[in-house]
Amino acid sequence: MRHVIDQAVAWQRSGTRFAMATVLRTWGSAPHAPGASMLVSEEGRVVGSVSGGCVESAVCAIAEEVLAGAAPTVERWGVGDEDAFEVGLTCGGTIEVLIREVGPEVPLGRIAADLAAGVPVALVTRVGGGGGLAVGGGTVTGSLGDPQTDRAAALAADGMLGRAASGLVTSGNAAYGDIACAPQRELLVQSFASRPQLLIFGAAEFARPLAGIGAALGHHVTVCDARPAFAAPERFPGADEVVTDRPDRWFRAREDQFDATTAVCVLTHDHRFDVPVLALALRSRAGYVGAMGSRRTHEDRLARLRAAGTTEAEIARLRSPVGLDLGGRGPEETAVSIMAEIIAVRRGGSGLPLTDRLGPVHIV
């Protein structure tokens, strides 16, 4: 999408009118996920792709109608396996595409600047409406038409951006405090961000549901263990990679790839592996560092970390014993408590029951 956004910004700045076609939903097999976009200029130039096949001829024709004054439209194309390859849907399937003109009010320049700086950002468009919203880094640029819709859209986009997810959300019909109820809107969120990383060190039984839940929440999941018998890929179908290596060696070779969205969970219960990787993780940019173990194990681990040169400020970042107090038992419920704490830390949540809190609840 980077080259698509860059071209859109260039056309926007030069005053060239253009339409943008964006995948909203897919069913079955489709070559592009929701959020993929194609541009069609008033001069007939095409940049990007929504299907890679003959569907795009139809998209171009509709884009020309939109540029001639037709309203934004959502179109659906579906084919069987026997016709799929001809139209670019490699194994059959259906795609739904939003086609609309993008005017100068859409903050594409902000999107391009954040992309160039490596800052996660989302573009929000109202399906069937005008305007656009750029959301990221705690700031919002642009508008979808009214403040209530903008606030609801920004909260919805922030949730999608945290998962590096793109697609449709329904936002609105929620009132909080003295903020008026926002009208219900169908919104397209296009996220420009890497998936947050979940690093699990220790391929024990507790790691299996944690990897699965982490993947379901949009994380890029890595499971690492020095013991080949434990680090077996078939044990972790939800993980993106399962690595046999010493945790500290693997982490040290990649620590420049980790940032505030990275969560580190150490589950090995063996100080020979725990302490070296925790010392590295606590000095890194990882936003969450947790370790499993009893309170006695925790105290022993702290002493070993101090002996290894870990500072008190670094130790203060350690979440141990790991997870929120949900009263759960067993690997699955423990995994829920760990992921709940990761979400709370990343989002600034309190971990308290929503009945005890005021303010925003669930927007999407």
Task: Characterise the protein shown here.
Strand 2 (37-41) and strand 3 form a beta hairpin. This protein has helices spanning 2-14, 55-67, 81-87, 108-117, 147-162, 207-216, 247-252, 271-283, 295-307, 312-315, 330-347, and strands at 18-28, 37-41, 46-48, 73-79, 93-101, 121-126, 132-136, 139-143, 167-171, 185-192, 197-201, 220-225, 241-244, 263-266, 288-291, 318-319. It is of the alpha/beta class and 364 residues long. The relative contact order is 0.09. A 6-stranded parallel beta sheet has the order 13-12-11-14-15-16, with helices on both faces. Helices cover 34% and strands 24% of the residues.
Task: Lay out the secondary structure.
Elements: H1 2-14, E1 18-28, E2 37-41, E3 46-48, H2 55-67, E4 73-79, H3 81-87, E5 93-101, H4 108-117, E6 121-126, E7 132-136, E8 139-143, H5 147-162, E9 167-171, E10 185-192, E11 197-201, H6 207-216, E12 220-225, E13 241-244, H7 247-252, E14 263-266, H8 271-283, E15 288-291, H9 295-307, H10 312-315, E16 318-319, H11 330-347
Parallel strand pairs: 11-12, 11-14, 12-13, 14-15, 15-16
Antiparallel strand pairs: 1-2, 1-5, 2-3, 4-5, 6-7, 6-10, 7-8, 9-10
Helix pairs in contact: 1-4, 6-11
Keywords:
16 strands, alpha/beta, 364 residues, single chain, 34% helix
Gist?
Helix 1 (2-14) crosses helix 4 (108-117) and helix 6 packs across helix 11 (330-347). The longest helix has 18 residues, at 330-347.
What distance separates the N and C termini? 25 Å
Poorly predicted regions: 81-85, 174-179
Topology, number of strands: 16
Radius of gyration: 23 Å
Helix content bin: 25-40%
User: What is the chains' assembly state?
Assistant: single chain
Per the principal axes of the C-alpha atoms, what is the gross shape? elongated
Main beta sheet = 6 strands, parallel
Provide the spatial order of strands within the biggest beta sheet: 13-12-11-14-15-16
Average residue-wise pLDDT:
86
**With helices defined by DSSP (H or I, 4 residues minimum), what is the helix count?**
11
Output the structural class: alpha/beta
